[in-house]
Amino acid sequence: MSRKVALFATCLGDQLWPEVVQATADVLQRAGCVVTFDPAQTCCAQPAFNSGYQQEAKAVARRFVEIFERADAIVAPSGSCTAMVHRYPHLFRDEPAWRARAEAVAHKAFEFSSFLVRELGVTDVGATLRARVAWHDACHGLRELGVHDEPRALLAAVRGLELVDLRTGEACCGFGGTFAVKFPELSTAMLDHKLSALDERVDVLSAIDSSCLMQIRGRLQRRGSRVRALHLAEILAST
Amino acid sequence: MNSMRPETFAANAREALADATLTGALRRATDTFADRRAAAIGAVPDWQELRTRAAAIKAHTLARLDHYLEQFVANAEKAGAVVHWARDANEACAIVRDLAAARGSKRLVKSKSMATEEIHLNAALAQDGREPVETDLGEWIIQLAGETPSHIIVPAIHKTKEQIGELFVDKLGIPPSSDPQVLAAEARTRLRAHFAAADLGISGVNFGVAETGTILVLENEGNARMTTTLPAVHVAVMGIEKVIPRFADLETFLRLLPRSGTGQHLTTYQSMLTGPDPTGQGPRELHVVLLDNGRSRIVADELMRQTLACIRCGACLNACPVYQSIGGHAYGSVYPGPIGAILTPQLQGMHSAGTLPFASSLCGACKDVCPVKIDIPTLLLELRRRAVEGEPAAAPGAPASLPTRRKPLEALGWRLWSWVTRSPARFRAASALTRLGQKLPFAKQLFGPLRAWQSTRNAPELAKRSFRSQWRGPVR
């Protein structure tokens, strides 16, 4: 079934990892979607919201609503940014008109892997990657959106790929936005606990969120690890 | 570790992380409790329904707290208990001190209670030379060591058996041992003597049943049973939020609490006390001190009210990756972990505890395990907002309090961020500037957050070209 999808690149994806966003668009198109990208978009407002600056966050969230409210479906390569959009009705709880518009937008905002599996009913996107992959359950996707089985189903269909069970798969990577720079040692200790379960069987640690992967990749590189951090979309776009 | 304050959370955390014995003990213990909890709830098919029911009972009760408290007091008094109201910690401590003084009590014993930790009751009684002996093994260890509990239900979770063995050698003069059996036997012998001699027993309260006036104390060592039955006088300190409407509601909470806390199906002892003992074998007097200490203010706030639904099981501590890494003392507050991070700022104010809502990665593991479904991440976010925007007015017409954690430079930074981010043109311009800036060799050292990031992790760089400048439009 062909679906019209408005791509939300996320600010990190747009500015730091365009290849992840491109991979997301490619996979969606391969799955039969018509993908559009509105260059008026910027950010979901989560950085300010999570720091307590809700007035500043609201101004950015209103823009998001205006840009995306005409879309059929909004898809982002991030559970965290999608979960933020799902929080808009709470953010505008004292402004009925904006709350209604926010609810409409939240209803059609989807995280990439769950959109493929739940909305399109697709698990095999025709990808091939010879690698042993461990999965990081990014917190907001896992606990706010219930994303757990979807990425595993998608990975299971990738030719040549072996999914390795990670004991600390559901443990937080320690990123947490400004938390990672407010408490760098604590943030890193949480990450090191997560990474302590990696062993020589693993080539790639993957997730649905570029923010977690920024934290994970930065530490793996600092330690000189041979394990690569890859976004799910990059794996699914591999042929 | 006991001098730690919430304001210095970042430094407290660093200090905890540098202690390998501490972090090792915490990881083992929290993993064990989390595993036991998972196994215990796995055997309950209607676990989610139980949580939903418990949350509903608590929400209902807290919305009509005055009604249920009146009912509880009437029924407790009918059964012969004496009920005292304490507006704050000072009043509560004064009530207990006066009760002990009037009776000339000399030997006081106490079972584990977070409410009495909250009001610093031991220190208050010590002023009269009446410091109670803690009788929960963990609490007794903490008291011997001159420390404070670092966990809601496992006060000495931060200590290894070796450290406890050394403490016993030092304080009790016993031969060296790190065998838990030997150490527990030593504690039992010594505590028995205190029970036998005690003339006043102090406990907390897990639940107060409005329709019967019954108080419940849950525990595993039998020490609370003895504390509440052997001395002639029993004083129970109960937060006003502990009341539940019906005896039948216990069916829900007694299934949830032990499984969430220690992974037990039931606690070993469940003492249900309705008035003093009419046969005269048990306590001749039962006093219940109802503690407000900021709770009625929290109840008045509809969003924050759910904080008081907490049944103090400690599951959120065991599940929290921050708590698992640094333990309870780093929070610098009586209540540590995720529940402490939302409760403490509300009880003692943002001024001294406004850092705690920021001491979380917002991973949400706490919300997942909470037996009464407190939405801790949402409350953390709301408290962060209040920390930088100020708190709402306490009463209609009263002024809102000023923000306590608004740093001028940070606030300016977020205003600038918002101004840039709501315009694609400004966003493009800012990212172009950053692309130029990151080419400067010293750029990463100039910008504080990036410096903090790079202390342990390689920093990413902006891509040569953003996605927006590469997008060629949809493929049809």
Can you offer a commentary on this structure?
- The complex is a heterodimer of chains A (239) and B (476).
- Chain A is an alpha/beta fold.
- Chain A has two domains: 4-117, no CATH class; 124-237, Rossmann fold (3-Layer(aba) Sandwich), CATH 3.40.50.
- In chain A, 49% of the residues lie in helices and 15% in strands.
- Chain A contains 14 helices and eight strands.
- In chain A, the strands form two sheets. Chain A has a four-stranded parallel beta sheet, sandwiched between helices. Chain A has a four-stranded parallel beta sheet with strand order 6-5-7-8, sandwiched between helices.
- In chain A, helix 8 packs across helix 10.
- The two termini of chain A are 22 Å apart.
- The mean pLDDT of chain A is 97.
- Chain B is of the alpha/beta class.
- Among the domains of chain B are: 44-295, NagB/RpiA/CoA transferase-like (Rossmann fold, 3-Layer(aba) Sandwich); 409-472, no CATH class.
- Chain B has helices spanning 9-17, 20-42, 47-63, 65-78, 89-102, 114-118, 121-126, 137-145, 161-172, 180-197, 223-229, 250-261, 295-299, 315-319, 321-326, 337-348, 350-353, 365-369, 376-389, 408-421, 424-437, 443-446, 448-454, 467-470; strands at residues 82-86, 108-110, 133-134, 200-203, 207-209, 214-219, 233-239, 243-244, 269-273, 285-291.
- In chain B, the strands form two sheets. In chain B, strands 1-10-7-4-2-3 form a six-stranded parallel beta sheet, sandwiched between helices. A four-stranded mixed beta sheet of chain B has the order 8-5-6-9.
- Classes of the chains: A alpha/beta (239), B alpha/beta (476).
- The interface between A and B is large, with 71 and 68 residues.
